[in-house]
Amino acid sequence: NAGVTQTPKFQVLKTGQSMTLQCAQDMNHEYMSWYRQDPGMGLRLIHYSVGAGITDQGEVPNGYNVSRSTTEDFPLRLLSAAPSQTSVYFCASRTGQLGNTIYFGEGSWLTVV
Amino acid sequence: DAKTTQPPSMDCAEGRAANLPCNHSTISGNEYVYWYRQIHSQGPQYIIHGLKNNETNEMASLIITEDRKSSTLILPHATLRDTAVYYCIAPPGGYQKVTFGTGTKLQVIP
């Protein structure tokens, strides 16, 4: 049981490049989310999904796309990277039942130069 | 989800109890209170959660007021490794959209 797995762990991009951050969970969780965390700041919700084929925007969705074709995977796409997207990105998952915990991945450090 | 309010920072002497408060005055009846912590830039770590009753596990205790408008996380014997940012959240009942605030930065002092 690997939990929530994020790849890559570190990435440097040039402004304007695109890339995809991968997130996979093996716990059969319905809900998955992406957060970003800037230095010294709290977690901000980018996008979330309540099941395969269903996604919605969070607090800071601009510049990011997501899709959920399977229960296990929830990739985050940066369409045209900007220096303002330099951040640490966390993927999270949980079941839909009340009172259950959220599991986080270890994070992906992204630098846009 | 219910808005939560936490002090931005707190200090605690090593070996003493750390009491971290959280205000969630708009909490609804089916919304749980969760506590997570984040050490450096690691992924947030689950600590404890509760609905109405006080809860205790191997990491901490959670005290929820009778009116459920506030709660306190208690680390009974703080160590240097407990230095972290602690987040209190109260997701909505269906809690599809879970947001975090800025948390409390706890500094454990030797």
List the helices and strands and how they pair.
The complex is a heterodimer of chains A (113) and B (110).
Chain A: E1 4-7, E2 10-13, E3 19-25, E4 31-37, E5 43-51, E6 54-57, E7 64-66, E8 76-78, E9 87-94, E10 103-104, E11 108-112
Parallel strand pairs in A: 2-11
Antiparallel strand pairs in A: 1-3, 3-8, 4-5, 4-9, 5-6, 7-8, 9-10, 9-11
Chain B: E1 9-13, E2 18-23, E3 33-38, E4 45-50, E5 55-56, E6 61-64, E7 70-75, E8 84-89, E9 104-109
Parallel strand pairs in B: 1-9
Antiparallel strand pairs in B: 2-7, 3-4, 3-8, 5-6, 6-7, 8-9
How would you characterize the overall build of this protein?
The complex is a heterodimer of chains A (113) and B (110). Chain A is an all-beta fold. Chain A has no helices and eleven strands. Chain A has strands at residues 4-7, 10-13, 19-25, 31-37, 43-51, 54-57, 64-66, 76-78, 87-94, 103-104, 108-112. In chain A, strands 2, 4, 5, 6, 9, 10 and 11 form a seven-stranded mixed β-sheet that branches. In chain A, strands 1-3-8-7 form a four-stranded antiparallel β-sheet, with no helix packed on it. Chain A starts with a strand and ends with a strand. Chain B has no helices and nine strands. Chain A binds chain B through residues 4, 31, 33, 35, 37, 41-45, 48, 50, 56, 58-59, 88, 90, 92, 96, 98-99, 101-107, 109, and chain B through 30, 32, 34, 36, 41-46, 49, 51, 85, 87, 93-103.
